[in-house]
Amino acid sequence: MIHGTFALAGAGVLALAADAPAFDALATALEVAASRAPAQADDPALEKRNNRAIARIDSALELLLDDVQRAFGAEVGGAARAALVGERKAHLERRLADFDDIDEEWAQGLVENLVAGEIWRTKVFSTWTEEQRAGWRAQENGRRERTVEASIHLATVLLATETRLRAPEVAKLRRAIEGWIEEREPTLSEVSAGDLVEELLTRGKVRDLFLPVQSVTLLRMREAKKPVAPSADAPGDDLALGRGRYPEDDYTLEAAALCLFHGWEWSGVPELARGAAMLGREARRSGSRPMRFGDSSLFKTLTRPDDSDLWRALVARRRAKNGASAPAPAPLYTDDPSALIDARVDLILAHLDERLRLDTAQMAPLRAALRAFVQREHAARARAFGALDPPAVWRELRFVEGKDPRRGSSSRRRMCAAMDEALTETQRVELGLAKRD
How far is the C-alpha of 303 from the C-alpha of 279, rounded, in Å? Predict the structure, then answer.
């Protein structure tokens, strides 16, 4: 592996890359270490930051080199290692000769240059055959396409689940989300919040598919003030609904979904609008306390409108009035939590593949490990369950610098233990599952 400080990492990888005697490689590395030691001797914190930056560079480079060797064998992999490790060494030497520190932005620029930029193209990619280059492009494009596809699917399933859409409307929604993904440029606050539905509702391609009552309901569930819990002996309350999901929302969104499916105007179904408010309020008053003042998991319904005889009668009456010969099918995803769980697992796995360059054989055990954890997330109502962006995903999984991924629930520890068995040492270090040397 290419871990640890510059001196130690340089010694190990140079011997492997150039097939040089270990003594010569070690001597070269020590010369570099000696040249920078005086500048850092009085500042241990600076040296620690520099070593951490070098370790990040080395981790990204090692993941790339492992991937090249898996794809093309030891000979091609060894040549790539020799070229890229040499360039990495030369750039670090020049940086430390001119500056005391290894700036984070500079280190990230070097990583990009080594794994996909000019250094990669001139020192490695250009030396391959056309067949090898085509195979590598297909592999890289495949990873990116799987991430995009997983993002589109999760966004579709999440919003369709929350709004109780039927299959024809879900198909329209997916097409709109495909266009939205192509143009998506989330703000930093949107990435941090990880609430995909609120972001979707601010973009015309998706928002225009919904009735105003749907948009108003979904935004109220997110932006209203937190409701005040009634006293223990209160029989119920008629106050305006606060933040969160209530039984009234289930009924209202069901009525709106039926309007979309049958082509009814919302203003033309007053009995459904009034019935949704009445039946939802009744369900809230007669239900458990959490139902009375909002559930924090907005994508999990609290009630099933079709379980109500009165609601079924109202819908049948409206259907007869409008000449609808057959009832609407059930919501496509709402009553199937496995669809949403699998969609989130697919996205996490796609992001992991881009970050760790996974081997095909690693996919199945990682999927099993992640699915068990995501099921727990779903039950625990994770706030950013539908997050698309890597920073939000890594934050929820604690795969970020300074966090211990194993700390927390037993389901998290089991996930990490299963990933320990599936990942290489370099991949484990990259995720924080193992310490850097």
Answer: 10
